[in-house]
Amino acid sequence: MSSIDYIKDNKQKFLDELFDLLRLPSVSADPAYKNDVLKTAEFVKNSLVSAGADNVEICETAGYPIVYGEKIIDPKLPTVLVYGHYDVQPADPLELWDSPAFEPVIKDDKIYARGACDDKGQMYMHVKAFETMMKTNSLATNVKFMIEGEEEVGSDNLGIFVKNNKEKLAADIILISDTSMISLDTPSITVGLRGLSYMQVEVTGPNRDLHSGVYGGAVANPINELCKMIASLKDENNKITIPGFYDKVVELTADERKALNSAPFDLDEYKKDLNINEVEGEDGYTTLERAGIRPTLDVNGIWGGYTGEGAKTVLPSKAYAKISMRLVPNQVSDEITELFTNHFKSIAPDSIKVKVTPHHGGEPAVTPTDSVAYAAASDAFVEAWGKAPIPTRDGGSIPIVSLFKDELGLDTVLMGFGLDSDAIHSPNEHYGVTNFMKGIETITLFYKHYANKH
Ligand code: BES
Ligand code: MN
Ligand code: MN
Fold first, then answer.
1. In which region does residue 102 sit, left (phi positive, over 0), alpha (psi from -120 to 50) or beta (all else)?
2. Residues enclosing ligand 1, CB less than 6 A?
3. Domains of the chain, with CATH numbers?
4. Which of 16, 55, 210, 289 has CB atoms 3.0–4.6 Å from 215's, for a disulfide?
5. Mutation choice for ligand 1 from 123, 178, 288, 392, CB with most ligand atoms inside 8 A
6. Looking at ligand 1, which atom is closest to the CA of residue 153?
7. Average pLDDT per run of 10 along the chain, which is 454 residues long?
Protein backbone atom coordinates (compact mmCIF):
# COMPACT_ATOMS: atom_id res chain seq x y z
CA MET A 1 0.00 0.00 0.00
CA SER A 2 1.25 3.53 -0.71
CA SER A 3 1.82 6.01 2.09
CA ILE A 4 -0.91 8.25 0.75
CA ASP A 5 -3.44 5.40 0.81
CA TYR A 6 -2.43 4.37 4.32
CA ILE A 7 -2.89 7.96 5.57
CA LYS A 8 -6.28 8.25 3.84
CA ASP A 9 -7.51 4.89 5.13
CA ASN A 10 -6.50 5.70 8.70
CA LYS A 11 -7.82 9.26 8.92
CA GLN A 12 -10.47 8.42 11.52
CA LYS A 13 -8.06 6.32 13.58
CA PHE A 14 -5.45 9.12 13.56
CA LEU A 15 -8.04 11.69 14.64
CA ASP A 16 -9.47 9.44 17.38
CA GLU A 17 -5.99 8.95 18.82
CA LEU A 18 -5.18 12.66 18.64
CA PHE A 19 -8.44 13.35 20.49
CA ASP A 20 -7.36 10.99 23.28
CA LEU A 21 -4.09 12.89 23.51
CA LEU A 22 -5.89 16.25 23.56
CA ARG A 23 -8.15 15.10 26.40
CA LEU A 24 -5.13 14.97 28.73
CA PRO A 25 -4.67 18.42 30.32
CA SER A 26 -0.85 18.50 30.24
CA VAL A 27 -0.42 22.05 31.54
CA SER A 28 3.24 22.26 32.54
CA ALA A 29 2.95 25.68 34.21
CA ASP A 30 0.47 24.58 36.88
CA PRO A 31 1.51 21.92 39.44
CA ALA A 32 -2.15 20.95 39.85
CA TYR A 33 -1.84 19.09 36.52
CA LYS A 34 1.27 17.12 37.42
CA ASN A 35 -0.38 13.69 37.11
CA ASP A 36 -1.92 14.59 33.77
CA VAL A 37 1.41 15.77 32.41
CA LEU A 38 3.00 12.47 33.47
CA LYS A 39 0.12 10.51 31.93
CA THR A 40 0.68 12.41 28.70
CA ALA A 41 4.32 11.32 28.64
CA GLU A 42 3.08 7.71 28.99
CA PHE A 43 0.66 8.27 26.14
CA VAL A 44 3.44 9.56 23.88
CA LYS A 45 5.65 6.63 24.85
CA ASN A 46 2.92 4.10 24.04
CA SER A 47 2.16 5.81 20.74
CA LEU A 48 5.82 5.53 19.70
CA VAL A 49 5.92 1.86 20.69
CA SER A 50 2.81 0.99 18.73
CA ALA A 51 4.03 2.98 15.72
CA GLY A 52 7.08 0.71 15.63
CA ALA A 53 9.84 2.61 17.42
CA ASP A 54 12.61 0.81 19.33
CA ASN A 55 14.26 1.67 22.63
CA VAL A 56 11.34 3.83 23.65
CA GLU A 57 11.85 5.25 27.11
CA ILE A 58 10.65 7.86 29.50
CA CYS A 59 13.74 9.81 30.47
CA GLU A 60 13.36 11.35 33.88
CA THR A 61 14.62 14.89 34.46
CA ALA A 62 14.50 17.26 37.41
CA GLY A 63 11.15 18.37 35.94
CA TYR A 64 8.85 16.61 33.50
CA PRO A 65 10.23 13.65 31.55
CA ILE A 66 11.46 13.57 27.98
CA VAL A 67 10.12 10.77 25.80
CA TYR A 68 12.73 9.18 23.57
CA GLY A 69 12.37 6.56 20.84
CA GLU A 70 14.21 5.56 17.68
CA LYS A 71 14.27 3.42 14.57
CA ILE A 72 17.72 2.77 13.24
CA ILE A 73 17.31 0.92 9.96
CA ASP A 74 20.93 1.26 8.86
CA PRO A 75 23.68 3.17 10.70
CA LYS A 76 25.09 4.25 7.35
CA LEU A 77 21.91 6.13 6.45
CA PRO A 78 21.25 9.68 7.63
CA THR A 79 19.36 10.20 10.87
CA VAL A 80 16.51 12.64 11.46
CA LEU A 81 15.96 13.80 15.05
CA VAL A 82 12.35 14.86 15.60
CA TYR A 83 11.66 17.29 18.41
CA GLY A 84 8.24 18.25 19.74
CA HIS A 85 6.48 19.01 23.02
CA TYR A 86 3.57 17.29 24.75
CA ASP A 87 2.94 20.02 27.32
CA VAL A 88 0.47 22.84 26.69
CA GLN A 89 -0.28 26.34 27.90
CA PRO A 90 -2.92 26.87 30.60
CA ALA A 91 -6.43 27.06 29.14
CA ASP A 92 -7.41 30.22 31.04
CA PRO A 93 -9.57 32.22 30.71
CA LEU A 94 -11.88 29.21 30.62
CA GLU A 95 -15.08 31.21 30.21
CA LEU A 96 -13.96 32.45 26.80
CA TRP A 97 -13.89 28.95 25.26
CA ASP A 98 -16.90 28.01 23.14
CA SER A 99 -16.37 24.36 24.09
CA PRO A 100 -14.24 22.99 26.95
CA ALA A 101 -10.50 23.19 26.29
CA PHE A 102 -9.82 19.51 27.01
CA GLU A 103 -12.90 18.09 25.28
CA PRO A 104 -11.82 18.25 21.62
CA VAL A 105 -14.48 18.77 18.94
CA ILE A 106 -14.36 19.29 15.19
CA LYS A 107 -16.17 22.35 13.83
CA ASP A 108 -15.79 23.57 10.23
CA ASP A 109 -13.05 21.04 9.64
CA LYS A 110 -11.02 22.36 12.57
CA ILE A 111 -10.08 20.55 15.78
CA TYR A 112 -10.79 22.75 18.82
CA ALA A 113 -8.79 22.01 21.98
CA ARG A 114 -5.84 23.35 23.98
CA GLY A 115 -2.75 21.94 22.28
CA ALA A 116 -4.60 21.06 19.05
CA CYS A 117 -1.95 23.03 17.14
CA ASP A 118 0.69 23.86 19.78
CA ASP A 119 2.07 21.29 19.84
CA LYS A 120 0.17 18.04 20.32
CA GLY A 121 -1.45 18.10 16.89
CA GLN A 122 1.79 18.97 15.15
CA MET A 123 3.91 16.62 17.23
CA TYR A 124 1.50 13.73 16.69
CA MET A 125 1.71 14.16 12.91
CA HIS A 126 5.30 12.97 13.20
CA VAL A 127 4.30 9.85 15.13
CA LYS A 128 1.64 9.08 12.51
CA ALA A 129 4.00 9.80 9.61
CA PHE A 130 6.45 7.39 11.20
CA GLU A 131 3.73 4.75 11.66
CA THR A 132 2.75 5.23 8.01
CA MET A 133 6.31 4.67 6.82
CA MET A 134 6.71 1.62 9.06
CA LYS A 135 3.44 0.06 7.93
CA THR A 136 4.11 0.72 4.25
CA ASN A 137 7.75 -0.27 4.46
CA SER A 138 8.89 3.08 3.17
CA LEU A 139 11.04 4.53 5.94
CA ALA A 140 14.27 5.42 4.12
CA THR A 141 16.34 7.05 6.89
CA ASN A 142 16.96 6.51 10.58
CA VAL A 143 14.76 8.47 12.93
CA LYS A 144 14.94 9.50 16.56
CA PHE A 145 12.22 11.16 18.61
CA MET A 146 12.73 13.50 21.53
CA ILE A 147 9.42 14.82 22.85
CA GLU A 148 9.58 17.05 25.92
CA GLY A 149 7.08 18.25 28.51
CA GLU A 150 8.49 21.61 29.55
CA GLU A 151 8.60 23.70 26.39
CA GLU A 152 5.93 26.11 27.55
CA VAL A 153 7.87 26.81 30.75
CA GLY A 154 11.30 27.37 29.26
CA SER A 155 12.77 23.88 28.54
CA ASP A 156 15.24 24.19 31.43
CA ASN A 157 15.82 20.46 31.80
CA LEU A 158 15.97 19.74 28.09
CA GLY A 159 19.20 21.69 27.90
CA ILE A 160 20.76 19.47 30.53
CA PHE A 161 19.41 16.33 28.82
CA VAL A 162 20.88 17.37 25.47
CA LYS A 163 24.27 18.17 27.01
CA ASN A 164 24.35 14.76 28.76
CA ASN A 165 23.13 12.65 25.84
CA LYS A 166 25.05 13.85 22.82
CA GLU A 167 25.75 10.35 21.54
CA LYS A 168 22.21 9.12 21.96
CA LEU A 169 20.97 12.18 20.10
CA ALA A 170 23.57 12.05 17.32
CA ALA A 171 21.80 12.86 14.05
CA ASP A 172 22.15 14.74 10.79
CA ILE A 173 19.24 17.12 11.04
CA ILE A 174 16.56 18.23 13.52
CA LEU A 175 12.99 18.28 12.27
CA ILE A 176 10.35 20.28 14.16
CA SER A 177 6.70 21.06 13.50
CA ASP A 178 5.87 23.76 16.05
CA THR A 179 5.55 26.88 13.89
CA SER A 180 3.07 28.21 11.36
CA MET A 181 2.73 28.42 7.60
CA ILE A 182 1.31 31.39 5.70
CA SER A 183 -1.95 29.78 4.57
CA LEU A 184 -3.38 26.63 3.02
CA ASP A 185 -2.79 28.28 -0.37
CA THR A 186 0.71 29.48 0.42
CA PRO A 187 2.95 26.96 2.12
CA SER A 188 6.03 28.30 3.87
CA ILE A 189 8.99 27.09 5.87
CA THR A 190 10.09 29.05 8.92
CA VAL A 191 13.75 30.03 8.73
CA GLY A 192 13.97 32.34 11.72
CA LEU A 193 12.64 32.54 15.26
CA ARG A 194 12.91 35.27 17.84
CA GLY A 195 14.55 34.85 21.22
CA LEU A 196 13.14 35.92 24.57
CA SER A 197 13.94 37.70 27.81
CA TYR A 198 11.14 37.55 30.36
CA MET A 199 11.20 39.68 33.51
CA GLN A 200 9.06 40.34 36.53
CA VAL A 201 9.29 43.69 38.29
CA GLU A 202 8.08 44.64 41.74
CA VAL A 203 7.76 48.27 42.78
CA THR A 204 7.37 49.15 46.45
CA GLY A 205 6.22 52.50 47.78
CA PRO A 206 5.16 52.93 51.42
CA ASN A 207 5.53 49.98 53.79
CA ARG A 208 1.74 49.40 53.87
CA ASP A 209 -1.42 50.18 51.95
CA LEU A 210 -2.54 53.72 52.82
CA HIS A 211 -5.76 55.71 52.82
CA SER A 212 -5.62 57.49 49.46
CA GLY A 213 -7.20 60.59 50.95
CA VAL A 214 -5.03 60.87 54.02
CA TYR A 215 -1.76 60.22 52.15
CA GLY A 216 -2.65 60.63 48.45
CA GLY A 217 -0.66 63.38 46.74
CA ALA A 218 2.10 63.30 49.33
CA VAL A 219 3.47 59.77 48.94
CA ALA A 220 4.50 58.06 45.68
CA ASN A 221 1.93 55.59 44.38
CA PRO A 222 3.86 52.53 43.13
CA ILE A 223 1.26 51.78 40.44
CA ASN A 224 1.48 55.32 39.04
CA GLU A 225 5.29 55.18 39.14
CA LEU A 226 5.41 51.73 37.53
CA CYS A 227 3.16 52.97 34.70
CA LYS A 228 5.45 55.96 34.10
CA MET A 229 8.52 53.74 34.07
CA ILE A 230 6.95 51.28 31.67
CA ALA A 231 5.72 54.07 29.40
CA SER A 232 9.24 55.45 29.18
CA LEU A 233 10.60 52.15 27.85
CA LYS A 234 9.49 53.15 24.33
CA ASP A 235 9.87 56.54 22.67
CA GLU A 236 7.49 58.34 20.31
CA ASN A 237 8.76 56.25 17.38
CA ASN A 238 8.21 53.01 19.30
CA LYS A 239 11.93 52.46 19.67
CA ILE A 240 12.94 50.74 22.88
CA THR A 241 14.85 53.21 25.06
CA ILE A 242 17.01 50.77 27.04
CA PRO A 243 20.62 51.86 26.35
CA GLY A 244 22.46 49.26 24.26
CA PHE A 245 19.28 47.33 23.43
CA TYR A 246 19.79 47.54 19.66
CA ASP A 247 23.59 47.31 19.66
CA LYS A 248 23.80 43.72 18.43
CA VAL A 249 20.67 43.66 16.28
CA VAL A 250 21.47 42.44 12.77
CA GLU A 251 19.83 44.69 10.18
CA LEU A 252 18.51 42.81 7.18
CA THR A 253 19.76 43.76 3.73
CA ALA A 254 17.41 45.54 1.35
CA ASP A 255 17.06 42.30 -0.63
CA GLU A 256 16.21 40.28 2.46
CA ARG A 257 13.59 42.83 3.48
CA LYS A 258 12.14 42.82 0.01
CA ALA A 259 11.86 39.02 0.03
CA LEU A 260 10.24 39.08 3.46
CA ASN A 261 7.70 41.68 2.40
CA SER A 262 6.83 39.86 -0.80
CA ALA A 263 5.04 37.15 1.20
CA PRO A 264 1.28 37.41 0.74
CA PHE A 265 -0.12 39.61 3.51
CA ASP A 266 -3.33 41.62 3.68
CA LEU A 267 -3.17 44.39 6.27
CA ASP A 268 -6.92 45.03 6.12
CA GLU A 269 -7.65 41.36 6.78
CA TYR A 270 -5.15 41.41 9.63
CA LYS A 271 -6.86 44.40 11.25
CA LYS A 272 -10.31 42.95 10.66
CA ASP A 273 -9.33 39.62 12.20
CA LEU A 274 -8.13 41.39 15.38
CA ASN A 275 -10.90 44.02 15.36
CA ILE A 276 -8.43 46.90 15.55
CA ASN A 277 -8.64 50.18 13.63
CA GLU A 278 -4.92 50.61 13.22
CA VAL A 279 -1.71 48.68 13.69
CA GLU A 280 1.17 50.08 15.70
CA GLY A 281 4.87 49.50 15.95
CA GLU A 282 8.41 50.62 15.34
CA ASP A 283 8.68 53.44 12.80
CA GLY A 284 10.16 52.50 9.46
CA TYR A 285 9.14 48.84 9.47
CA THR A 286 6.19 46.95 8.00
CA THR A 287 3.85 44.81 10.06
CA LEU A 288 5.53 41.64 8.80
CA GLU A 289 8.92 43.04 9.80
CA ARG A 290 7.70 44.26 13.19
CA ALA A 291 6.36 40.78 13.98
CA GLY A 292 9.28 38.80 12.61
CA ILE A 293 12.66 40.47 12.40
CA ARG A 294 12.50 43.32 14.92
CA PRO A 295 12.91 43.06 18.69
CA THR A 296 9.99 44.04 20.93
CA LEU A 297 9.05 44.88 24.49
CA ASP A 298 5.60 44.04 25.85
CA VAL A 299 3.89 44.08 29.20
CA ASN A 300 2.26 40.67 29.68
CA GLY A 301 0.52 41.46 32.93
CA ILE A 302 0.31 44.29 35.46
CA TRP A 303 -1.31 44.26 38.87
CA GLY A 304 -1.50 45.80 42.30
CA GLY A 305 -3.90 47.69 44.53
CA TYR A 306 -7.59 47.02 44.70
CA THR A 307 -9.19 45.15 41.79
CA GLY A 308 -12.29 43.73 43.46
CA GLU A 309 -15.92 44.83 43.23
CA GLY A 310 -16.79 48.46 43.74
CA ALA A 311 -14.29 51.10 44.86
CA LYS A 312 -11.75 51.06 47.65
CA THR A 313 -9.82 54.26 48.23
CA VAL A 314 -6.33 52.95 48.67
CA LEU A 315 -2.80 54.01 47.89
CA PRO A 316 -1.16 50.61 47.50
CA SER A 317 2.18 49.59 48.87
CA LYS A 318 3.19 47.49 45.86
CA ALA A 319 2.79 47.16 42.10
CA TYR A 320 3.95 44.39 39.77
CA ALA A 321 4.39 43.71 36.08
CA LYS A 322 5.58 40.91 33.83
CA ILE A 323 7.53 42.25 30.87
CA SER A 324 8.86 40.29 27.92
CA MET A 325 11.26 41.22 25.17
CA ARG A 326 11.44 39.27 21.91
CA LEU A 327 14.97 39.19 20.57
CA VAL A 328 16.43 38.89 17.10
CA PRO A 329 19.83 37.76 15.82
CA ASN A 330 22.42 38.48 17.36
CA GLN A 331 20.95 39.71 20.62
CA VAL A 332 21.82 37.53 23.64
CA SER A 333 19.11 36.83 26.18
CA ASP A 334 21.30 37.16 29.30
CA GLU A 335 22.80 40.41 28.04
CA ILE A 336 19.40 41.92 27.34
CA THR A 337 18.19 40.78 30.76
CA GLU A 338 21.10 42.64 32.34
CA LEU A 339 20.57 45.78 30.24
CA PHE A 340 16.90 45.80 31.21
CA THR A 341 17.62 45.27 34.90
CA ASN A 342 20.18 48.07 35.10
CA HIS A 343 18.06 50.48 33.11
CA PHE A 344 14.86 49.76 34.99
CA LYS A 345 16.57 50.35 38.32
CA SER A 346 18.20 53.53 37.02
CA ILE A 347 14.90 55.14 36.01
CA ALA A 348 13.23 54.47 39.36
CA PRO A 349 12.53 57.66 41.32
CA ASP A 350 13.90 57.88 44.88
CA SER A 351 10.37 57.62 46.27
CA ILE A 352 10.08 53.90 45.44
CA LYS A 353 12.14 50.70 45.51
CA VAL A 354 12.45 48.33 42.56
CA LYS A 355 13.09 44.59 42.41
CA VAL A 356 13.71 42.91 39.06
CA THR A 357 13.54 39.12 38.73
CA PRO A 358 14.36 37.39 35.42
CA HIS A 359 12.18 34.45 34.35
CA HIS A 360 13.15 32.17 31.48
CA GLY A 361 14.83 33.32 28.33
CA GLY A 362 16.03 31.90 25.07
CA GLU A 363 18.15 32.75 22.07
CA PRO A 364 16.91 33.69 18.60
CA ALA A 365 17.69 31.39 15.68
CA VAL A 366 18.06 31.44 11.93
CA THR A 367 18.12 28.22 9.94
CA PRO A 368 19.87 27.75 6.60
CA THR A 369 18.00 27.62 3.29
CA ASP A 370 20.90 26.18 1.32
CA SER A 371 21.01 22.77 3.02
CA VAL A 372 20.07 19.30 1.76
CA ALA A 373 17.38 19.10 4.44
CA TYR A 374 15.82 22.42 3.46
CA ALA A 375 15.74 21.31 -0.17
CA ALA A 376 14.07 18.05 0.88
CA ALA A 377 11.46 19.93 2.90
CA SER A 378 10.86 22.26 -0.02
CA ASP A 379 10.41 19.30 -2.41
CA ALA A 380 8.00 17.69 0.05
CA PHE A 381 5.85 20.84 0.08
CA VAL A 382 5.92 21.07 -3.70
CA GLU A 383 4.72 17.47 -3.96
CA ALA A 384 2.01 17.71 -1.31
CA TRP A 385 0.79 21.29 -1.74
CA GLY A 386 1.61 21.96 -5.40
CA LYS A 387 3.69 25.04 -4.62
CA ALA A 388 7.21 25.83 -3.50
CA PRO A 389 7.20 27.02 0.12
CA ILE A 390 8.20 30.61 0.90
CA PRO A 391 10.91 31.03 3.57
CA THR A 392 9.53 33.18 6.43
CA ARG A 393 10.61 34.47 9.83
CA ASP A 394 8.26 33.72 12.73
CA GLY A 395 7.95 35.99 15.73
CA GLY A 396 7.57 33.24 18.33
CA SER A 397 10.39 31.47 20.15
CA ILE A 398 11.66 27.90 20.31
CA PRO A 399 14.80 28.43 22.38
CA ILE A 400 16.08 24.87 21.91
CA VAL A 401 16.76 25.48 18.21
CA SER A 402 19.88 27.50 19.04
CA LEU A 403 20.77 25.00 21.76
CA PHE A 404 20.70 22.13 19.23
CA LYS A 405 23.08 24.09 17.03
CA ASP A 406 25.45 24.92 19.90
CA GLU A 407 25.41 21.55 21.69
CA LEU A 408 24.84 19.03 18.89
CA GLY A 409 26.13 21.09 15.96
CA LEU A 410 22.84 20.42 14.17
CA ASP A 411 20.69 22.62 11.97
CA THR A 412 16.92 22.51 12.20
CA VAL A 413 14.19 22.42 9.60
CA LEU A 414 11.08 24.15 10.95
CA MET A 415 8.32 22.45 9.03
CA GLY A 416 5.30 24.00 10.72
CA PHE A 417 1.72 23.43 9.59
CA GLY A 418 -0.17 25.75 11.95
CA LEU A 419 -1.77 29.03 10.91
CA ASP A 420 -1.33 32.32 12.76
CA SER A 421 -5.12 32.36 13.16
CA ASP A 422 -5.12 29.04 15.07
CA ALA A 423 -5.31 30.93 18.38
CA ILE A 424 -2.41 29.12 20.07
CA HIS A 425 -2.06 30.18 23.74
CA SER A 426 -5.56 31.75 23.41
CA PRO A 427 -9.10 30.56 24.04
CA ASN A 428 -10.52 28.39 21.24
CA GLU A 429 -7.17 27.14 20.00
CA HIS A 430 -7.75 25.03 16.92
CA TYR A 431 -5.97 23.15 14.16
CA GLY A 432 -7.21 22.35 10.67
CA VAL A 433 -7.97 18.72 9.94
CA THR A 434 -6.55 19.43 6.49
CA ASN A 435 -3.35 20.81 8.02
CA PHE A 436 -3.08 17.70 10.18
CA MET A 437 -3.68 15.20 7.37
CA LYS A 438 -1.63 17.00 4.72
CA GLY A 439 1.08 17.61 7.28
CA ILE A 440 1.42 13.86 7.85
CA GLU A 441 1.77 13.35 4.12
CA THR A 442 4.31 16.18 3.79
CA ILE A 443 6.42 14.70 6.57
CA THR A 444 6.55 11.27 4.90
CA LEU A 445 7.60 13.03 1.68
CA PHE A 446 10.33 14.88 3.56
CA TYR A 447 11.92 11.54 4.53
CA LYS A 448 11.66 10.27 0.97
CA HIS A 449 13.35 13.35 -0.54
CA TYR A 450 15.89 13.61 2.26
CA ALA A 451 16.96 10.00 1.70
CA ASN A 452 17.04 10.45 -2.07
CA LYS A 453 19.45 13.35 -1.79
CA HIS A 454 22.05 11.26 -0.01
N1 BES B 1 5.28 26.79 19.27
C2 BES B 1 5.52 27.97 20.02
C3 BES B 1 6.45 28.95 19.33
C4 BES B 1 5.97 29.47 18.00
C5 BES B 1 4.64 29.66 17.73
C6 BES B 1 6.91 29.76 17.05
C7 BES B 1 4.25 30.15 16.48
C8 BES B 1 6.53 30.26 15.84
C9 BES B 1 5.18 30.44 15.54
C10 BES B 1 6.09 27.56 21.38
O11 BES B 1 5.35 26.54 21.98
C12 BES B 1 6.01 28.74 22.32
O13 BES B 1 4.93 29.13 22.66
N14 BES B 1 7.16 29.28 22.76
C15 BES B 1 7.20 30.30 23.74
C16 BES B 1 8.57 30.44 24.31
C17 BES B 1 8.83 29.67 25.57
C18 BES B 1 10.21 29.99 26.10
C19 BES B 1 7.79 29.80 26.62
C20 BES B 1 6.87 31.64 23.14
O21 BES B 1 7.17 31.89 21.96
O22 BES B 1 6.30 32.46 23.85
MN1 MN C 1 5.00 25.01 20.67
MN1 MN D 1 3.51 27.46 22.86
1. alpha
2. 118-119, 151-152, 154, 178-180, 193, 196, 360, 362, 394, 396-399
3. 3-193+364-452 (3.40.630.10), 195-249+295-362 (3.30.70.360)
4. 210
5. 178
6. 19
7. 97 98 98 98 98 98 98 98 98 97 98 98 98 98 98 94 98 98 96 97 98 98 98 98 98 92 94 96 97 97 97 98 97 98 98 96 95 98 97 95 97 97 97 98 98 96
